[in-house]
């Protein structure tokens, strides 16, 4: 049953999606008990693939009392027992927020040990109960410690079990900052954010993070915290910390983990550079080689099975490379979600470059079991051998990566060795990358704007398209320098520059046109899952003085193929203010229509490859009609890109497209020319076929 069912009071679903949703197993329900929004964690507990599957169901149907706990009606194996905490939502008291805490593991222990039944009340128990010997034994078995936070002196009070798990000595008082200092550096930012949400705003939290014990061992903790009021009305913050390290297939258990990749446990690029520096300092450095390996069609795995399946696949490949290569080879995880590198200290011991490349290729080609499917993979491999005095480890990594790109250009499953011509090209790319960095810092780029019009030629919005006035090569289009930005890790900074500049330019368009004109910005590096996304967009809009309703953020279809919780939350944080999201190049990716239906998107942009064939290809006509009909059925607007002929325009009019963009109306124009165009709108277009 969907959120649009008759059981869902009108308007509650939209209201629920506009309010804050805790990042834990959460249900938000209307006054009549109908669930109108659920988190991904709640869906997982209930054995559902998507949170929307819980919408429209009644809380009494989902949660059935089972002694001191509640049984969650689940599609998953076994029974799911939870404790629930409910309170009126702080943004709208008519909505009820219910947080679910999975206690199935604890109830299993309770059946074996009667004293464990008292554990479910540990959060509310006084400190002296925490150390009851029988209860303590059960907590140690489960690797779960309890804690409280005293708002009076801001002291963090761990139980003796938690002290043993974390390694904090007794009876030293512990501050939150002391605890945070032991959290993995990459996790501290969001642990601090979750703590602030809990202690300042009293939002319940459930997070996982890595923790470095004093003895150097790294553990993975799942922390749950809630804020309740005691009999005197004072706020009491308490919770549990569960050591779940053993549940992870590839835990990071070594010290110095900032040099490890969190998904695979392999060395990361920083560690790879250090290792190569040592290898190249040896007398036998002429035997050092680097292989860069990229899994072909990895994005299809993500779009078909999800990001978690992608991470699972990477972990499997990491284990294969580690176990299947000789001691002279060290696999590492480098830049890119699907890239590995193999650092070889002795090419002769590995049997030579060709034999090593074949071995790596064979390890990747071995079918991998993922989520009940057997995936057949291949890899594009690039190789670089140390031959020139003065080469650094970073140089070898760059050359191997470039060779990998050349191999990929020749087809899937190919191998290519870096030669002198390719090395010279890579060096030139490094020079261009440095120039691009300088252009970003010195405001040396330009934005052109292409109008998006409706059927009568009125300009609805302008899409920002970046250009680079290169000092030697002239005005460069994005296709000439975006690959350089991607390889240099500059896409995020480029997006930030474009958004700041575009909003600043668009702020005065209303004064020229006499009505609101939208600004569309395509995002590639700055995406909703970025922790700084929502704040940056809000700060940029405020600085420009632009109305949120003018802002259209375009995301490519593959970015939304398997949206994680952070992506959904980032999108909701922006759309609640009035901004809109558009799916760019729709129909060219592999996204699920089930996921698309529930995303907070307002617009669909039909890719130009379908528009180009409207007058000659019946398949393109049928696909375009289907996209427009589907978008309208789901309440989305539809924009056609690449409209270049009057015939295409007339056909799109007949099919019911809502807006149009292309050379038929105007090319992308410098800002001053686009402003002049607004003053003379609407545009006059002959829509009659030749």
UniProtKB/TrEMBL annotation:
Superkingdom as given in the UniProt entry: Bacteria
Annotated EAL domain residues: 429-682
Residue stretches in coiled coil: none
Any single Pfam family the record assigns to this protein: GGDEF
Residue ranges of every copy of the GGDEF domain listed in the record: 286-420
SUPFAM superfamilies recorded: EAL domain-like, Nucleotide cyclase, PYP-like sensor domain (PAS domain)
PROSITE patterns, per the entry: EAL, GGDEF, PAC
Domain PAC: 205-256
Record-given protein name: Uncharacterized protein
